Each structure stands twice: as C-alpha cells, then as structure tokens.
C-alpha cells in the first residue's frame, strides 16, 4: 500500500479564511497553531540541513574546496526548493494532521 503525499505548493496560495477557523472557531487561535507548527518544522529542517552540511565542514578553510563540492551545493539547492515551513504547516492544519490543545478551553 503506497501513501501519496499531498502536493504542497512552493509559492503563496490564496486561502479562504473561513477554512482556517473551522476546527477552532477562532481565526486567531488557528493562526497561532499554524505559526507554532511552522516554527517546529523550520527548526527541524534547520537541524537536518546543518547535520548534513556538517559532514562537509573542514578544519581549514580553503576557497577552492567550497566551490568544487557539488554534493554540498546539491543538498543546499534541495532545501531551497522545498516548500516553506508556513505552507507545510497550513497544509497540515487544513488536513487535520496537527495535534493541538487549548488548556483554557479544557478547564471550562
């Protein structure tokens, strides 16, 4: 059984604001959830990229090596082509793939 990943656009998308507040009944709460998720995604991608690029780090800085390392350039280009964390977070939120809770609502 293969899982098909949704296609997340690489550029901005016009969204219907009413779609964002369907699950929370509050657009501001939805935006906060999406924002926090986007920060998590950005941090994960940053750690992953730094981990991959750390393999190429050398103790001596040589300009010739920087320009000749095609594999490092390809890794960087791959991450640049990826959708932005905010677009991924919105897509996850709209497809109910984000777990969130509001303690103040739970107390009532």
From TrEMBL:
EC numbers, comma separated: 2.7.7.6
Pfam families in UniProt: RNA_pol_Rpb6
GO biological process: DNA-templated transcription
UniProt KW keywords: DNA-directed RNA polymerase, Transcription
Superkingdom of the source species: Bacteria
GO molecular function, one term: DNA-directed RNA polymerase activity
The family this protein is said to belong to: Belongs to the RNA polymerase subunit omega family.
UniProt protein name: DNA-directed RNA polymerase subunit omega
């Amino acid at each position: 059984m293969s899982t098909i990943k949704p296609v997340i656009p690489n550029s901005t998308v016009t969204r219907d604001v009413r779609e964002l507040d369907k699950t929370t009944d509050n657009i501001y709460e939805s935006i906060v959830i999406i924002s926090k998720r986007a920060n998590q995604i950005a941090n994960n991608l940053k750690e992953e990229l730094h981990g991959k690029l750390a393999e190429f780090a050398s103790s001596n800085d040589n300009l010739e090596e920087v320009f000749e390392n095609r594999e490092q350039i390809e890794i960087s280009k791959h991450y640049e082509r990826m959708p932005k964390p905010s677009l991924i977070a919105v897509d996850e939120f709209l497809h109910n793939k984000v777990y969130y809770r509001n303690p103040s609502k739970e107390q009532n």
